[in-house]
Design a protein that fits this description.
single chain; alpha+beta; Jelly Rolls; 9 helices; 23% helix; 16% strand
């Protein structure tokens, strides 16, 4: 049976990166302190209890999914911006974009009796249109309860991120992401995985936070889940991850429907809506490189 590599919270980022490149996933044990875990679990409970079950076999008829975590749960924000996770996002996503963004935030609760989810690749959220050499996303699932074989720990197929899409995983090529509460599994958008079967008499609860390239459509619409009046109260780092910033030189500006004289220009960066200026200048490198391929035009 295949296995995933486990790391301590202080493990070198390069070692974690190497494991994810090789296997498509890795686990960091006990990254979230128990005091923060208890606060997170308590804060999320009312929202979890108010969430309905899945509408089909894929989303899970004995599974609930709860989103909008940045707006609803202040405790979850530290998970979104955790520096250990950010280091891995930098390594996996920045080779393909100027800025990455939050893709989704979701509590996934597997209740007793939930069956196995079909193995799948998360990158198919964008269909099959992206070239395989582009990794569009990096994902995390934080264990709020222990993840065990009995309660439905996520099934993963190590090494499958590089497989041909026609290849199917044999039983012995699969493993389960068993980990204690407070631990986190990182996995790419290309690795085969799926929820496990909950054969226990207890819930399995995880917080799924994923990140994607800044030029792709987000799975969870962050501008509706965390509208400007809420985003304005957050840290600049969170605002930028939500998408309230320019994704590149020409991605993401807006114009006010009721412009004011103070604006000065009609196209504005999203930060203007939040009452501040951008922290960094947007990248222009791609346009400069493109222009370098053409001879300078003569003045007419």
């Amino acid at each position: 049976m295949a296995e995933l590599e486990h790391f301590q919270p202080d493990a070198p980022a390069s070692a974690i990166n190497a494991a994810i490149v090789r296997d498509g996933a890795a686990i960091i044990d006990n990254l979230l302190p128990q005091s923060e875990l208890r606060a997170l679990s308590s804060e999320l409970r009312p929202f979890i209890d108010g969430s309905g079950r899945g509408r089909d076999d894929f989303t899970g008829r004995a599974t609930t999914r709860t989103g909008a975590l940045v707006a609803r749960s202040p405790e979850s924000r530290a998970l979104v911006t955790h520096p250990v996770i950010g280091a891995q996002c930098d390594a996996f996503l920045l080779p393909f974009c100027d800025r990455y963004q939050l893709h989704l935030t979701q509590v996934i609760r597997l209740m007793p009796g939930q069956g196995k989810q079909t193995l799948h690749r998360d990158r198919l959220a964008w269909g099959g249109y992206l070239p395989r050499q582009i990794e569009p996303q990096l994902n995390t699932i934080w264990a709020v309860t222990d993840f065990t074989r009995e309660n439905g720990a996520t099934r993963v197929v190590p090494g499958s991120a590089t497989w041909d899409t026609s290849r199917r995983a044999a039983y012995e090529e699969q493993t389960q992401a068993e980990m204690s509460a407070g631990s986190v599994m990182l996995y790419t958008g290309s690795v085969l995985h799926g929820g496990g079967e909950n054969r226990s008499d207890a819930e399995r609860i995880g917080v799924n936070i994923t990140y994607c390239l800044g030029w792709l459509r987000q799975e969870e619409n962050q501008y509706l889940s965390c509208p400007p009046e809420v985003a304005a109260t957050l840290s600049p780092e969170l605002q930028e991850l939500l998408g309230y910033t320019m994704g590149s030189y020409a991605l993401g500006y807006f114009s006010r429907p009721d412009p004011t004289a103070e604006d000065g220009i009609d196209t504005l960066p999203p930060e203007a809506l939040l009452g501040r200026k951008p922290r960094t200048k947007t990248a222009f490198a791609a346009l400069e490189a493109d222009q370098a391929n053409f001879p300078r035009e003569r003045d007419l």
